[in-house]
Target: ADP-ribosylglycohydrolase family protein
Amino acid sequence: MNSPSRPGDSAAARRSLEALALGDAFGERWFPLFRPPRQAYAEVRARRTPHEPVWHWTDDTALALALQRVLDEYGHVEQDRLALYFALAFDADQARGYGHGMHVLLPELLTSPADWRTLAPGLFEGGSLGNGAAMRVAPLGARFHADLGLAAGQAVLSAVVTHAHPEGVAGAVAVAVAAALSVRGEFTLEAVAEHTPQGAVRDGVLRAAQVPFATDPWKSADLLGNGSRIRADDTVPFALWTAARHPGDLETALWATAEGFGDVDTTCAITAGVVGAVTGVEGVPAEWRLRREPLG
Ligand SMILES: [Mg+2]
Model:
């Protein structure tokens, strides 16, 4: 039973978080740091499981864990506390692949978390429109699936602590709503667009809804973006397209997302958070679960 002060489905949130971390760690394997692009392409096409014994997760998971901690403790997004937990996550391990903006912002928030109000909008002259608020938010959407308005509203509160630009916020809303709809068994790209604020992210989700699922994922990524521009509108539409293409099958969804390459830890984290909100990680091969770095 959920008490009134702790609304939401924490089991669904946990399923989504476990899957998000798996997607993040799996996706990270395909970066050129670990295997040259030509080899990565061939291995993804052949569905060859990455051979490394440990798949480390990255900033996507570190910040999703921080957000989960706030929601577990408060039952809602307590923004100053969230700013502090983001900063603590960064401070604990700065080598998790954080973007430039977070390297600037998060050390400042460690000493004065409440300053997110002035510091986040000052990033990149108008706030970050990157994919950082979207990549960590699927478990929040899963948690609040019973109330789409609440899921969207809490997603906004979680986003603006670091990503103040409307497109950065819209990316978070789209992913949170997608995860919520996924748990409800109502996930379609059209329904996500309906609940996403107007702008480039929403336009991208509407474009994704027009791409037939028979399309090869690499071709879809060409049309929708694969996150290589590190913007929410370049990342979220494709990640949600593969999630909608493979609801109920996390492993297949992740292979399809990996075919898009680009910011592949983040696209895979988003796809996995949405699909895994329903499936959890039980359906993927056992060695995937063993190799993913534990959440601690
Ligand atoms: Mg990352």
Notes: The first helix runs from residue 10 to 28.
